[in-house]
Amino acid sequence: MAEFLTRIQVEGTAAIIRNRSRYQPTVGIILGSGLNDVANAVQNADVIPTSQIPHWPTSTVPGHKGRLLLGRLEGKVVLVLQGRTHFYEGYNMDQITLPVRVMHILGIRTLILTNAAGGINPSFHTGDLMLIKDHINLPGMAGANPLRGPNDASFGPRFPDMTEPYDAQLRQIAHDQARAAGFETREGVYAFVAGPSFETPAELRYLHGIGADAVGMSTAPEVVVARHAGMRVLGISTITNMAKLHPEVGDVTSHEEVLEVGQQVLPRLTALLHGVIRHLPTAVDEAETA
């Protein structure tokens, strides 16, 4: 497969989805590890296996189902991706961010991303929900930026501004809705690392030193592409484990632990997403297509 997908290929992928659904979504949701069950609340959903969509990368990670659901959630028409793909699976940046490009072509202008992350900030606890206010894209800073290569101006500018990658108004809505549901949300900086190995103690101490509050293996590339296209972004990290900056003998981190905590957090995350989507400002009328 070529390193860079063309506009024609992305539009063709979007056309397949459009032709297989009754809906015209305006809100996109990408679910992280262990968080697939959030999609169960989508009403009257059209379900499309991603294996049936041309050019769409297939997730190989436990906890990622590989399905698109288009339907209604809290009065909005949403597209939910169960099963993101990651750089460490062997895909290039163009492939792992294809879903965001497709969402934009489908008319989605608000993107909500969730992920499982390790907590670096010592005030955090396992099970916390952190609203992402900024990120540190380490692979991107080292050359693996999803906008590398020829720029298609129909998607966005050659040099997009990243002063506010995560929308402040959406974060405030999320904070308010969490309080209304009876819990508090954290806020912080997310560090993106390539994976799949978990971080060493020295790497974690470095990330803490440069201002990271949590660390994970996704999200930042998708956000770069979304902001390139002018989409509004809300990022939510589930703190599934506390990073071991100074581990004791026998301390280990496992993907199974990540999935287990993800399940425990689901009720709060689901309540938060419902509240946010219910209170999203609506720029256009959202309706089913004929």
Distance between the termini: 35 Å
User: What's the tally of helices?
Assistant: 8
Largest sheet, strands/sense/barrel: 5 strands, mixed, barrel
Number of strands: 9
How many discrete domains?
1
Q: What topology, given as strand order, has the largest sheet?
A: 5-8-7-6-9
Strand content: 15-25%
Highest CATH level, the class: Alpha Beta
CATH architecture classification name: 3-Layer(aba) Sandwich
Would you kindly provide a written description of the structure presented here, covering whatever features stand out?
A 5-stranded mixed beta barrel has the order 5-8-7-6-9. Residues 284-290 have low confidence and may be disordered. It is of the alpha/beta class and 290 residues long. The longest helix has 24 residues, at 255-278. It contains 8 helices and 9 strands.
Task: Offer a concise description of the structure.
The protein is α/β, with parallel strands linked by helices and 290 residues long.
Attribute tags:
290 residues, Rossmann fold, single chain, 29% helix, globular, 5-stranded mixed beta barrel, alpha/beta, 8 helices, disordered C terminus
What's the SSE blueprint?
Blueprint (H helix, E strand, L loop, with lengths): L6 H13 L7 E5 L11 E7 L17 E7 L2 E7 L10 H4 L1 H8 L4 E10 L9 E9 H4 L26 H13 L5 E7 L8 H9 L4 E3 L3 H9 L3 E11 L12 H24 L12
